[in-house]
Amino acid sequence: MLYKYRMAEPLVDWVILVLHPSILWVKDCAFCKHNAADGRISCCPLPELMTPESLLGMFEEIDGCLPRVEQRLKISDPTDVQAEVLVFDVIEPQYIVGVIYEKALVRDAHAHLLGDRKPYVHSNNKGMFANRKYARTWG
User: Fold this and answer.
1) CB-based contacts of 107: which residues, under 8 Å, 6+ apart?
2) Following DSSP, what letter does each residue of 67-86 receive, concatenated?
């Protein structure tokens, strides 16, 4: 989804926030192995999506998706590229541990705002700004 908006607004300097993983167990979260708007997810009762089993299900082999080995997925990659975690709470600033920029110039312009957060640059459609299939195949 980020790609769609980046292409629609090419003059905007986009960033990706790196969040502390503890959000997954200290906040109320729903774990969606497909896009949350997908009928296979939206028809599920919310409490069912908020279980450890739903989190694990994001990383299992899924009917309709290529096998994980064929996708060359890392252990931390959900099987479906559209999988998502919904957080039903405020994510306070202390949970932001880093910021990924597309341009070093933008990183440098905002460095004074980061405090002790780690800055990263993933430029030219690389890293977190890359297409996952491309990144895992040619990465």
Assistant:
1) 99, 101, 119, 121
2) -HHHHT--TTS-SSTT-EEE
If residue 16 lies in a helix (H) or strand (E), which one and from where to where?
strand 15-19
pLDDT-above-90 percentage for the chain: 85
What count of other Cβ atoms lies within 10 Å of the Cβ of residue 5?
Answer: 10
- How confident is the model at residue 107, as a pLDDT? 98
How far is residue 8 CA from its own chain's centroid? 19
Closest CA relative to residue 106, chosen from 19, 1, 12, 2: 12
Distance CA 6, CA 19 (A): 21
Q: What pLDDT sits at residue 139? A: 65
H or E stretch at 133:
helix 132-138
Report the 10 Å Cβ neighbour count for 40: 14
> CA 61, CA 77: separation in Å to the nearest integer?
12
* pLDDT given at position 87: 98
Q: How deeply is 6 buried, as exposed, middle or buried, from its count of CB atoms within 10 A (0-12, 13-18, 19+)?
A: middle
